[in-house]
Amino acid sequence: MPTVLTSSADALRQQMLGGGPGLPPVLSNHPTQSVAPIDGWKSVLFGLPFFLSGLFIGHVAVTGDPVRKHAPDWLIGLFGSFFFFAGTFLVVHGLRGVARKAAHDREAAAQPGQPWLADHHWHREGSSFSAFGEMLRRFLAAVLWNAFLVPFFWVGLNVKGPGRVFLVFASLFALIGLIFWARWLQMLSDLLRYGNSSLLFDSFPYFLGSELNARLRVPHHLDVIDELALTLRCVQEKYVTTGTGNNRRMQIVCYELYKDVASFTQAQLAGAATSYLPVSFRLPEGQPSTRLTDSPPTYWEIEARGKARGAEYEAYFLVPVYKAP
User: Fold this and answer.
1) Given 146, 163, 195, which residue is the final one in a domain?
2) Spatial separation of the C-alpha atoms in residues 4 and 15, rounded to whole Å
3) Which residue of 31, 105, 224, 258 sits 20 to 30 Å from the alpha carbon of 3, by its own alpha carbon?
4) CA dist., res. 86 & res. 50, Å (int)
């Protein structure tokens, strides 16, 4: 669940990721618009070796000399698929980014002064949150985590001596993977109880220095939520590299540049259980405009988080906030 890092143990991590006193807070476990901390042609070039390695390993699994193989074909093929699909993802992601940037430049040149028309494929009626899509993504993440451990379990069970080390570590990582299943069950519970949500815009787009008025629609059981907090937030994503040498790791970090919170009691929610909950915020001047085409992007969102017994409500909605022309 998205939180702002505040504990003393996390203060060091704040500094490592560029946060800290006087700087924008770092949002932990926040959903990102960036799908990978690399874009464009860099992503294509980085993914090609993985793609080609996956093809080669798959070829060995199908046509290689059985005598020289030290593992069954299905295991070699599974191992090769990790490289193949990782490489395919990076290549496709990079090419899509290049095409998207080119399309943005064309549309921005054709319609100057209206960046919202080229920046994102907005629906003028509103923004939606697919609880089903989130549930499916978390399910796939859990499956992929366990599939990745299959080769290590095979080595641990079939290679005596040093192979037992693989079994121990694979078992430990399988236990860590229970977190993925727990998050999936949480999202499944949210989906079954509340369904998908939508935020309807009263105007399009919204401009900095003006009012943001919208209506929140939750199809099911809005009245069972004890308290609902709506957070208007400006988020800036960055690609941050931590560690040194072989321990270098690049990750997507979300920084909270601005936030405003509106809270609703159970009585207020009960009155809106069969209709739309009105949402209103004052957009400050001097804050960044939405730039979803940038890599990494800056954007505005409304986070909805409800406290309830059994299944908490959670949803995120992008909102089109730009500087007035």
Assistant:
1) 195
2) 13
3) 224
4) 7
> In 10 A of CB 116, how many CB atoms?
20
> Model pTM?
0.82
> Which of helix, strand or coil describes residue 213?
strand
Per the prediction, the chain carries an average pLDDT of 86
Residue written as token pair 């700087």: 23
Radius of gyration of the chain from its Cα atoms, rounded to whole angstroms: 23
Helix or strand (DSSP H, E) at 300: strand 298-307
- Token pair, residue 142, equals 């859990």
- One domain, residues 83 and 96: yes
- Specify the amino acid at residue 166: F
Q: Where does residue 243 fall: left (phi above 0), alpha (psi -120 to 50 degrees), or beta otherwise? A: left
H or E element at residue 278: strand 277-282
Same-domain status, 204 and 298: yes
CATH number of domain containing 262: 2.60.40.640
**With 70 as the cut, is the pLDDT of residue 77 above it?**
yes
Residue type, 280: S
pLDDT at residue number 19: 58
Cα distances (Å, whole numbers) of residue 33 to 46, 158, 210, 306, 307:
20, 42, 25, 23, 25
DSSP-assigned letter for residue 80:
H
Q: Which positions ≥6 away from 204 have C-beta within 8 Å? A: 116, 122, 124, 320
Do β-strands 197-201 and 126-129 pair in parallel, antiparallel, or remain unpaired?
antiparallel
Give pLDDT, residue 83: 93
pLDDT digits (tens, 9 = 90+) for 182-231: 889 988 988 888 888 999 999 999 999 999 999 998 877 777 788 899 99
Residue type, 299: Y
